[in-house]
Structure formats: C-alpha cells, structure tokens
Input
Amino acid sequence: MADESQLPQSPQALDGQPQVGGTPPPVSSNDIQSMPENFYEGSGGGEGGGGGRMRRILIIAIIVVVVLGLILLGYVLFQQFFNGTNENTNEDLVINTTVTNTANANTNAVANVNDGLVGNTNVVVNTNAVLNVNTNSNTNTVTNDNTNTVSNLNANSNTNTNTNTSQTLTKLPSTTDGDGDGLTDIEESLYGTAADQPDSDGDGFIDGKQVLVSGESTGEVYLGYNPRGTGRLDVSGLVRTYTSTQKQYSILYPNTWLAQPTNSTEANVLFTPSESTGEYIQIGVQSNPAQMTAEQWYLSLNPSISASELTDVSINGLVGVLSPDESTVYLAKGSNMYVMSYSTGALEELNYWTTFEMMYLNFRLTETSGTNANTNS
Output
C-alpha cells in the first residue's frame, strides 16, 4: 500500500474557496452575507420581483385613467346642462346661430366646442316651438276679515198687506169699448148687453158708467142696476152675493166668476173671472188696533204719497179713501180695515174697471152672523 502521506492533498482555490469535490473549509460568522429585500418577492428569483413592480404600475395607470375619465364625464355633463338652458359661459368658444322666426316658431341652434384635457365636441340643438311662454308666479291673496252683523230689533205688530199689484200712480186705461157705454166689450159679454148699443134696454140710462158734466157718475151697472131690464142688479141673476160670516160683510160679484177664500178665517177672498186674463179682485180684512182712519192707514204704508192725491169715498155708512191709481179702496170700521183691490198683473189695459167699481160700491157690513151663502136669484 502506498503511504498515506504520499496521497495528494485537496486542491485549494486561489481565493481560499474550496473546489468542487473537495471538503469545504469551515465558515466563520464574519463570512455570512445578506440579500437585498427587493429580491425576496417571487419564487422565480429576479423574474418574480420584476413582475410585482409591473402590476403596481398597471394598477396605478388604471386608477389615473378612471379618475381622468370621471373628470371628463363630469365636465361634459356640466357643459350639456348649461347648454340645455341656452346659457353659454364660454364666450370665446361658443358659436350662436339664430334662425329667422317663422310661423311663431323659434329655432335656436347652439354649437358648443369645448377644448379641455380631452378633445370634446358637444352639439346641442334646441327647438322652441312656442313663441312666448309667460309664467306668472304671482299669488294674490285677498283676505277680508270684516264681519258685518246687522240686527233688526224692531218688532212690527202691524201685519198689514197691500195686495195692490199695480206699479203706477195713474189709472190704467180700459180695453176696447165699442159703443162707449162704460162697459168694455168683454164686460158686455159678461152682462149680456149689446156691444153696439149704449142703452141695451132703452130705459134712458147708459149700460155701464157715464160721468156727467157736474162731475157725478151714473150708469146702470156702476150703480148696481140691471142693464137689461128693471130692478136692482142683485135680483137680476147677473150677479151673486158673497157673504162672509166670520168677517161680517157682503159684496156683489159677477155670476160666472169664482169666489174663493184663501184661508179658513176668510181674511182674504179672491174673485176671479171665468176667462183667465191675469186679473182678479181681492177683499182683505186687516186688524187696525190703533183704529186709524183709512187715510192715516194708507199714508203710513205709502209715505211718499200726499193726502191731496187720495179721493175720499163714503160707501154704505163706511168712510174711506181711494188710491191715486183708483185700484184700491180702504174702508175703516172700528179695529178693522177693509181693503178691496183690483190686481192687474202685468196688464197695461184692463177689462173690468166698471165691474170693480160696482163691487166696492155694493160692499156693506152685516150686523148679524149667519151662514155663508152665495145667492143667485
């Protein structure tokens, strides 16, 4: 065997590092080296570290692009909003073109070219088809806080009712009177007299009414006589007698007319022609506790009328007055006032003037109570 001392020794590197295949020399603590931190990332050594840096750069770039995009989008919307209201804030970059107004239509073309961070062309076309749009935002509020309270404490115990519907103070004319005897042609038919003969029975007295030179009036129907023969009118069969048992009076009225009380006390009675003309005659009995005269009564109801305009009348022991238009007669007796009126409605010419005068001239009070009877002789 060869002597171990003669075996070759492990070769040593010139720099003191062991060669491959040899036994490494012992390492001291002073020989340990540290790797930079930027080489720690990644499992691929240097390649792994380079990939991480690229990802961070890419993320940052994306964030920058998104932020710029949002800024750009906000800018575009901002421009569109102001362009939509036709208000241009960029005096140097706005081109306004106004088209001629035709047929009440305004067309405004507004082109806005905005140069910002990114080239942006915004074209807004506004078409206004209404010439004028007026908006009135005024609100008018009227508040009336006034409260008017009227209290009438006057108690009127006088329940007088003037039933005369005539609206004039002068006497209305009569309708046609062909023979001039004081009876209208309608009254001639009512009493059966001749419309072309003033004295139908030839007794020398006119059929209706005649005013004499002396101022007195005469005539058969007017004074209550039969125009077709002898005797009184109430026994001729041409009229009836209405007697009120509650108010104790009687009156004559034409045979063909309707006599009807308006209430159970007979305070008002209507006498209506058989042929409706809108005319009727009414008798009302009203309370007169102060026992005023007929003249005082009338003037209290008509203060604008003077006493000189009234006509005094005396009928079967009753004293009264005739109204200026001769359509109402007032007769006073004790605590009662008897009012007879000719209601004419809207007529301007009347048919029954002589009949009305005949009725109130034949009005009389009854002294004793009896049954209510309409007598036709």
